[in-house]
Amino acid sequence: MLAIAFVQYKLVTPLASVVVLYGMAMSQMWRVLQAPEPLLPGTPVYLYLIDWPLLFLIALGSGLIERRVRTANTSAKGSGKR
Length: 82
Description:
Layout: H1 2-7, H2 13-34, H3 44-50, H4 52-80
Helix pairs in contact: 2-3, 2-4
């Protein structure tokens, strides 16, 4: 899905949202691993993997918003030339 959105529609926000959230999860996981406390169930990576439907909705929503903004800008530029 991300590849299709990026290649066919040239949308950047779905891929960026997944990369940013994954980076945040890895950063949090690094902090958890550096802490002296034992690992508890529910580490950031587990939460990232369990909350994939939420991540999917974030990527889908950001892609739809980007596509609508781009189409609105394209149509506004096309109507301004007349």
